[in-house]
């Protein structure tokens, strides 16, 4: 009764927190605004994201994770502490048992940094789980069976591709190219083609509104605002769906090539299972128009998007928090080595 079980999807773009018995209680951008004069945290999550590119010199709005790993340790710990405090409302003196997701391709040092940040944030018992495992469980794939399941989790900082059988990862690839790189590609394209400088939030808005991996019916255009690089004055331009697709093509095909490489490394019996079951997409990148169809064309495999792609990873950690969940014999438990 004095312990709270918390699952955390510590993502580059968004952090989701679930509490056992309550479900997902926090869904916030992984952004922290702090005052550089006294290093005090001013805002976390959505409020801090609204400040990106709009703060005075004394306040800095930063994303403390880059490419799926911690880039700023102290800021990450402060962000986790704020999220834990939200999860412990009404239970201020509880011990915190935490499961945190990490990319499959992290190094020992990077995973240690996640563990230490959670410890500094107040967690007493910490377990780390690989994101593809959590995503597959959250998507409802039959990972405990003696057959192959393929999961592709496209987040903000990393794209995780894994083949899972009998509750463990058989082969996996972790690519540090994902949604943030799509945004960066749009920023670079607009700068080169239209001599216009736009920010991350504008690029993300363009991607969501008119971005696609393949041509689609009733393609449209969007008016965007930014700073003219020629005279430095504010300027409006019109950008089309086709332009946005051209901007993102190279990044999209890097992800597809990683999927191909993983399939090449898959044992033949499991590859046969994947032909039958197909590939499951999770993460925010799965919502890009036409992405699933393009992957199906390029790989020859059926591709489906999970029912709730944004929440699959955190829902998988929620399963790990449940008793008799079947994870104990199979799940990646790197956190145990740090105690």
Structural class of the helix and strand makeup? alpha+beta
Q: Based on the structure given, which CATH architecture of the largest domain is correct? A: 2-Layer Sandwich
On the 0 to 100 scale, the average pLDDT is 88
Sheet having the most strands? 5 strands, mixed
The percent of residues in helical segments reads 25-40%
Q: Please mark out the parts with pLDDT under 50 across 5 or more consecutive residues, or reply none.
A: none
First-last Cα distance:
24 Å
Corresponding CATH superfamily of the largest domain: ATPase, nucleotide binding domain
Q: Might you state the CATH topology name of the largest domain?
A: Nucleotidyltransferase, domain 5
Q: What is the strand tally? A: 18
Q: Any idea of the CATH class of the largest domain?
A: Alpha Beta
Number of structural domains = 3
As a whole number of angstroms, the C-alpha radius of gyration is 21 Å
Q: Any idea what the shape is?
A: flat
SSE arrangement, N to C: EEEEEHEEEHEHEHEEEHEHEEHHEHEH
Number of helices: 10
Strand order, main sheet: write it out: 3-2-1-9-10
Strand content: 25-35%
């Amino acid at each position: 009764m004095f312990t709270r079980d918390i699952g955390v999807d510590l993502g580059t773009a968004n952090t989701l927190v679930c509490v056992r018995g309550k479900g997902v209680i926090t869904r916030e951008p992984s952004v922290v605004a702090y005052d550089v004069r006294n290093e005090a945290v001013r805002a976390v999550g959505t409020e801090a994201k609204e400040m990106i590119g709009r703060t005075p010199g004394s306040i800095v709005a930063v994303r403390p994770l880059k490419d799926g790993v911690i880039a700023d340790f102290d800021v990450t710990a402060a962000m986790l502490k704020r999220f834990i405090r939200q999860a412990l409302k009404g239970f201020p003196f509880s011990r915190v048992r935490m499961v945190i997701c990490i990319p499959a391709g992290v190094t020992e040092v990077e995973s240690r940094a996640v563990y230490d940040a959670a410890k500094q944030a107040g967690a007493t018992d910490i377990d780390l789980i690989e994101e593809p495992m959590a995503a597959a469980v959250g998507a409802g794939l039959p990972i405990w069976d003696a057959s192959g399941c393929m999961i592709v989790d496209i987040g903000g900082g990393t794209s995780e591709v894994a083949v899972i059988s009998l509750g463990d990862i058989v082969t996996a690839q972790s690519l540090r190219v994902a949604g943030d790189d799509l945004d960066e590609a749009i920023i670079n394209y607009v700068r080169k083609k239209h001599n216009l400088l736009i920010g991350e939030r504008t690029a993300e808005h363009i991607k969501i509104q008119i971005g696609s991996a393949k041509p689609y019916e009733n393609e449209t255009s969007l008016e965007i605002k930014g700073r003219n690089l020629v005279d430095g004055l504010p300027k409006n331009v019109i950008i089309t769906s086709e332009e946005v697709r051209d901007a993102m093509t190279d990044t999209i095909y890097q992800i597809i090539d990683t999927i191909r490489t993983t399939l090449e490394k898959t044992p033949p019996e499991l590859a046969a299972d994947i032909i039958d079951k197909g590939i499951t997409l999770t993460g925010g990148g799965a919502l890009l128009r036409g992405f699933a169809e393009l992957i199906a064309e390029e790989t020859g495999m059926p591709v489906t998007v999970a029912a709730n792609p944004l929440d699959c990873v955190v829902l998988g950690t929620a399963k790990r928090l449940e008793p008799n969940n079947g994870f104990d014999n199979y799940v990646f438990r790197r956190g145990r080595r740090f105690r």
